[in-house]
Here is the input.
Amino acid sequence: MLVYATKLVAVFAAAPHDPQARRTILSVLIAFLPAVVVGVLAHDIIKTILFESPRLIAVMLILGGVVLLVVDRTAFTPRYNDAMHLPLSVALKIGLFQCLAMIPGVSRSGATIVGALTLGASKRAAAEFSFFLSMPTMAGAFAYDLWQNRAVLDSGSVTEIAIGFAAAFVVAVVVVRGLLSYVSRYGYALFGWWRIIVGSIALLALTLQG
Here is the structure.
């Protein structure tokens, strides 16, 4: 499970003298850009409209599960076996897939991995790049929310929030790392069926409630 984190540290350590490492960092930043643009432009819509629709979340859980099952059964021919060798254009397209995760019920890791696979990455490279991309994405989302609420924050609350974020960030990294390690080895069927079952139960409950 430490393989992705170890490689990420190695990439940053090698960046001063390794052009390939610098290019990898650039590809992650390029993939991060679409989320920055869409997140800033659509922040209010995402927070106030999309997240207020439980039915949308349930439907997206089901649709995402179906997509994962289809991807799990599709034999893709990988052209890129290492996340460090993804073309910058492919990295940008993976970043566009990540924007789908702004829709409630869509998994960020799932969206980026599915995007990477359809664009020619191997399972390992797709999982690896998704982990790399999760770092600036999670940090950026926290920083933007903090900035949006700066008017109601004092120095004490900022410190408390920062500590809470650091703890949540570490937990999220461990969870994401474990998830990507699993799917890169065993595929996506388990998570696909889990999403379909949970989404179906939620949709049925919402329907019965009227």
